[in-house]
Every structure is written in C-alpha cells, then in structure tokens.
C-alpha cells in the first residue's frame, strides 16, 4: 500500500471520485492515442482530469499524465489502495465540514490505525453524537442511544417502585 | 300589565331554583376524594369497627368470667362456713357429753367419799392415805381425760380445715382450667376473623399498588418519549458536538482498534 498516496486522500468518497476520474481519463487518453489527433494538445486531455487528483499525481509520480502506460500504473496504485485499506464509516446527524473531517482523519491516523480511510454518512434520527461502523463491529455513541438507555432505566425504576 | 307581573314572578322563581341547585352541586363537589381513596377509607373503617366489636366481646367475656368467679367464691364461702359451724357444733356436743359424764363421775365420787368418811371417821391415818390416793387418782384420770379430749378435738379441727382447703384448691384449679379454655377458644376464634380481615386488606392494597404502578408506567413512558423527541430535534451543529465526539473517541480508542 502506498501510504504517501493514502495521506493525500481525505476520505473514501474522494477516493471513489478519483477512481472514476482516472477511469474516464484513461479512456480519453486511449481514445486520443488511438485516433492520433496530433493537433489536439495533451493539456486538453489533462484538463478533463479532476484538478485535485492532477496535483496529487504530479507531486507523487512526476510528469506521467500523458503517458498511458504510467497512468495505468497509477490507476493500479489507486485500486490497490481501495482493496487493501480498512474502511471506517462515521455517521453523524448533519453534514460535516472539511475542517472537521481533517481533524477526524488526523485522529484516526495517529491514534487508531494508519491503514484507515474514513467514510461519512448522515442520519438525522440519531440526534447527535457519532456512530462508528467497520466490517467487524458497530459502536453507537449517538444521543439517541444514550436517551434510549435513560428511558429504559426510568421505566425499570418505575416498575420496581414500592408503593 | 298582568302578563308582565306574571313573567317577572316566573323569572324570580327560576333564579331561586338555580341558586338552590347550585348550592347542592357545590356541596357535592367538596367531596374531593378519589374512588380509590374512598375505597381504602371504607376498608379501614370496616376494620376499625370489627376491631371494636372484638374488644367489646372480649370485655363481655371478661365480665362474665368475673361474675362466675364471684358467684362460686361466695357459694364456697357459704358452704365452708356452714360445714364449719356444723362440725363445731358436733364437737361442742361431744365436749358437753364428756363434760356431763365427768360431772356424773365427780358427783358419784364425792358421794362415795362422804360415805367413806362417815364410815371411817375414827381411822384418821389410813383414811387420810386412802383419801389422798383417791384424790390423786381422780386428778390423774381427769387430766388424762381432758388431755385426750383436747387432742382429739385439735386433730378433728385440723383434719377438717385441711380437708376443706384441699377441696377448695381442687375446685379453684378446675375453675381456672375451664376459664382458661373458654378464653383461649374465644381468642382463637377472634384471631381467625382478624387474620381473614387483614388478608383481605392486604389483597386490596396489592391491587391498588398494581393499578398505581401501571398508571405511573404509562404516564412516564409518554413523558420520556416526549423528552427524547425534543432532544433529538435540537439539531446541534458540529461545534456543539465536537467536544463530546472527541472525548468519546478518546475513551474508546482500544475498542475501536480491536474492531478494525
């Protein structure tokens, strides 16, 4: 796994967007090389690539954007990352901004595991707090679950009351 | 004109009727007790009444026993007194008979002595000896006789009083035994009645408790659900939640690591 690459990706959604963009770019690149449109400048092709992805590829792998073979290698790296990474889904009651996502990414990389990529979901029913899902486990720290426990506790107390 | 007066009178009567009805309605509203409270008060009043009945009966029984005691003890005193008097009379008669016979012996002896004195008035020494001996014998016999009577009388009296006391004790013990049994039977009877009543009260209070708990349960469930809904609708933003989320994550780091 390319940890340098992982560090540059914010979350799983972004990885999926990059993979879709890469796929499309490679199709366009292939078409370009097939049709041999020599009058078409490579930068026209490059401009179809996701800008953030373009920056990442150039900084990590150099000037490979117009090289079909090297770009396929880059695509493999991205696919390899997707297959080997551990995905952790975080559920919140509202949309989370990028600043907060960075804080979460930093926390998980430093304190949980460096092989983790975060995925975000929204569920307004949870009221607040966080739910953490992995392949193996489920942690419910939402406000809904806390209140549910308190409600069950109160009902127990009433049922056992001595009159 | 007449119609006007009639109408006015009718209205006045109606108003008075309303006031009358309101007065009684208000009186009915003052009863603020709930059905459950009135039921409990009724059960407690019944229990109090029954307890008072038991006390009255116990007092009646106690009075009756005292009466029996008084009657028996009075009768006994009379019987003993009567027996004593009869026995004493018998003893007196015996003593009297003995006394009469002693008088007779005395009279006879004196008479003989006089005859002897008359017959032997010349022989002084022999006569004196004979007289002294006879006198001594008489005194001894008399003493013996009186001693015998006295002893017999004492024995008879002591035997008689002992016999009567034994009979008295025996009867008293029998009365005590009978009385104890009567009281014990009555107490058992009343205890059974009271136990049945207290079981009834226990059952009623258990039913009331269950009803109250069920009602509390329903009310509480509604209130808690409402509170939960309100809290969940607060829609706190991430700034408000950030501290809670990171505190929670920090507390559960190991669990999350193990869950990957």
Question: How would you describe what is shown here?
Answer:
The complex is a heterodimer of chains A (163) and B (260). Chain A is 58% helix and 15% strand. Chain A has helices at residues 3-8, 12-35, 42-46, 51-61, 68-84, 98-112, 143-159, and strands at 86-92, 116-122, 129-133, 138-142. Chain A has a four-stranded mixed β-sheet. In chain A, a hairpin with a 4-residue loop joins strand 3 (129-133) and strand 4. The model of chain A has no long low-confidence stretch (mean pLDDT 85). By secondary structure, chain B is mainly α. In chain B, helix 2 (35-119) runs antiparallel to helix 3. The longest helix of chain B is centred in the last third of the chain and has 109 residues, at 124-232. The interface between A and B is large, with 40 and 37 residues.
Topology, please?
The complex is a heterodimer of chains A (about 160) and B (about 260).
Chain A: H1 3-8, H2 12-35, H3 42-46, H4 51-61, H5 68-84, E1 86-92, H6 98-112, E2 116-122, E3 129-133, E4 138-142, H7 143-159
Parallel strand pairs in A: 1-2
Antiparallel strand pairs in A: 1-3, 3-4
Helix pairs in contact in A: 2-5
Chain B: H1 2-29, H2 35-119, H3 124-232, H4 238-251, H5 253-258
Helix pairs in contact in B: 2-3
Mean of the pLDDT scores of chain B?
A: 67
Helix content of chain A: 55-70%
Structural class of chain A: alpha+beta
Number of helices of chain A: 7
The protein's oligomeric status is: heterodimer
The side-by-side strand order for the widest beta sheet of chain A comes to 2-1-3-4
- Segments of chain A where pLDDT lies below 50 for 5+ residues? none
Q: What overall form of chain A do the CA principal axes indicate?
A: elongated
**Main β-sheet of chain A: number of strands, strand sense, barrel status?**
4 strands, mixed
Ranges of chain B with pLDDT <50 over ≥5 residues? none
Strand content of chain B: under 5%
Greatest chain-chain interface? A-B, 40 and 37 residues
Gyration radius of chain B (Cα, Å) is 53 Å
C-alpha Rg of chain A (nearest Å): 23 Å
Q: Mean pLDDT across all residues of chain A, rounded?
A: 85
Q: Count of DSSP E strands of chain A?
A: 4
What portion of the residues of chain A fall into strands of 2 or more residues? 5-15%
Instruction: Give the distance, in angstroms, between the N- and C-terminal Cα atoms of chain B.
Output: 103 Å
The secondary structure category of chain B is mainly alpha
């Amino acid at each position: 796994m390319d940890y340098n690459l992982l560090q540059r990706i914010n979350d799983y959604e972004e990885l999926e967007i990059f993979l879709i963009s890469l796929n499309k770019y490679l199709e366009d690149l292939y078409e370009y090389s097939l049709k041999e449109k020599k009058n078409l400048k490579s930068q026209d092709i490059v401009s179809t690539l996701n800008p953030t992805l373009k920056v990442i590829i150039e900084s990590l792998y150099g000037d490979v954007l117009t090289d079909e073979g090297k770009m396929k290698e880059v695509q493999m790296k991205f696919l390899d990352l997707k297959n080997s990474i551990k995905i952790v889904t975080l559920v919140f009651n509202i949309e989370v901004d990028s600043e907060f996502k960075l804080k979460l990414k930093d926390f998980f990389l430093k304190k949980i595991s460096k092989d983790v990529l975060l995925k975000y979901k929204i569920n307004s029913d949870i009221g607040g707090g966080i739910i953490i899902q992995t392949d193996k486990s489920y942690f419910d720290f939402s406000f809904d679950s806390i209140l549910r426990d308190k409600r069950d506790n109160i009902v127990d107390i009433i049922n056992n009351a001595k009159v | 004109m007449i119609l006007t007066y009639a109408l006015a009178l009718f209205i006045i009567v109606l108003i008075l009727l309303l006031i009358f009805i309101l007065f009684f309605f208000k009186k009915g509203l003052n009863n603020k007790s709930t059905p459950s409270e009135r039921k409990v008060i009724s059960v407690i009043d019944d229990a109090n009444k029954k307890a008072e009945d038991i006390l009255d009966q116990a007092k009646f029984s106690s009075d009756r026993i005292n009466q029996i005691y008084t009657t028996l003890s009075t009768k006994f005193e009379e019987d003993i007194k009567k027996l004593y008097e009869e026995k004493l009379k018998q003893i007196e008669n015996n003593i009297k008979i003995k006394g009469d016979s002693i008088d007779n012996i005395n009279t006879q002896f004196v008479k003989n002595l006089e005859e002897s004195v008359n017959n032997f008035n010349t022989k002084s020494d022999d006569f004196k000896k004979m007289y002294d001996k006879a006198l001594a014998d008489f005194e001894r016999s008399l003493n013996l006789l009186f001693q015998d009577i006295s002893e017999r009388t004492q024995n008879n009296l002591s035997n008689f009083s002992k016999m009567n006391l034994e009979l008295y004790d025996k009867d008293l013990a029998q009365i005590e035994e009978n009385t104890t049994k009567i009281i014990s039977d009555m107490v058992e009877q009343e205890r059974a009645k009271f136990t049945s009543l207290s079981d009834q009260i226990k059952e009623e209070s258990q039913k009331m408790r269950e009803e109250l708990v069920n009602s509390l349960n329903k009310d509480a469930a509604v209130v808690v659900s409402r509170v939960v809904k309100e809290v969940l609708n607060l829609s706190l933003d991430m700034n408000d939640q950030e501290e809670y989320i990171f505190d929670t994550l920090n507390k559960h780091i190991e669990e999350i690591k193990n869950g990957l």
